[in-house]
Amino acid sequence: MRLIQLSRESLNFPPPEMALREPNGLLAIGGDLSPSRLLAAYQRGIFPWFSAGDPILWWSPDPRAVLLPETFHLSRSMKRFHQRSPYRVTLNQAFKTVIDGCASERDEGTWITPEVKHAWLRLFEMGKAQSIEVWQDDEVVGGMYGLALGQVFCGESMFSRRENASKTALLVFSRYFHQNGGRLIDCQILNPHTASLGAQEVSRAVYLNSLQMLGQQSVAEDCWQVKTLF
């Protein structure tokens, strides 16, 4: 199969099933990072990922990594840590700080370029993107951000500058999301960190079916209002 070139004039994407097997999930190239295109992509199970200086690449891997909030794996050591946690966790209080942290905490370099940051800040201003902040005193020491689609949360990136800060973000958010009607957290591609917390791989077909069904369902009305979670 050939790689599809997206047009800036159209928000259409090829079907995710047309994605390449190698590299796994690469579907299309080009387009832009406008809020409308990003929303159209995530609603179809597609996300952008590319290196600075490269064209925009769009992906829909098979299998897909997901986390069911009710099956979050809490190790004994993490349970002990959380019981005496030095952290405070908030929702949507410092989105820019979180995305800046995610961009800077990457030894291998970052794909979160200024253009990507701008796109996500616009989504946040529209009420579509969300952030979870982990604070120690008055400093954000960890967190995560992503996009809410009904009862699905598409996790985009996380960072940690203190012990277990990103794990705390995902733990607290998973419990909160589940309590407010959330059913699925999209982790995109499985890695040792998310696997240790209970993420698992499902086929792309299963993920797309879940996204179609759960993306149309609502969470609690005040789910995404600014608040302290822990």
Automatic annotation (TrEMBL):
GO molecular function: leucyl-tRNA--protein transferase activity
Enzyme class: transferase
Pfam families registered for this protein in UniProt: Leu_Phe_trans
Subcellular localization(s) per the UniProt record: Cytoplasm
UniProt xrefs under InterPro entries: Acyl_CoA_acyltransferase (IPR016181), Leu/Phe-tRNA_Trfase (IPR004616), Leu/Phe-tRNA_Trfase_C (IPR042203), Leu/Phe-tRNA_Trfase_N (IPR042221)
Its EC number(s): 2.3.2.6
Entry annotated with the keyword Cytoplasm: yes
Entry keyword annotation includes Repeat: no
Gene3D superfamilies named among the record's database cross-references: Leucyl/phenylalanyl-tRNA-protein transferase, C-terminal domain, Leucyl/phenylalanyl-tRNA-protein transferase, N-terminal domain
Catalytic activity line of the entry: N-terminal L-lysyl-[protein] + L-leucyl-tRNA(Leu) = N-terminal L-leucyl-L-lysyl-[protein] + tRNA(Leu) + H(+); N-terminal L-arginyl-[protein] + L-leucyl-tRNA(Leu) = N-terminal L-leucyl-L-arginyl-[protein] + tRNA(Leu) + H(+); L-phenylalanyl-tRNA(Phe) + an N-terminal L-alpha-aminoacyl-[protein] = an N-terminal L-phenylalanyl-L-alpha-aminoacyl-[protein] + tRNA(Phe)
Keywords for this protein: Acyltransferase, Cytoplasm, Transferase
Any GO BP: protein catabolic process
GO CC terms of this entry: cytoplasm
The organism's place on the tree of life at top rank: Bacteria
Sequence intervals crossing the membrane: none
Family: Belongs to the L/F-transferase family.
Role noted for this protein: Functions in the N-end rule pathway of protein degradation where it conjugates Leu, Phe and, less efficiently, Met from aminoacyl-tRNAs to the N-termini of proteins containing an N-terminal arginine or lysine.
Protein known as: Leucyl/phenylalanyl-tRNA--protein transferase
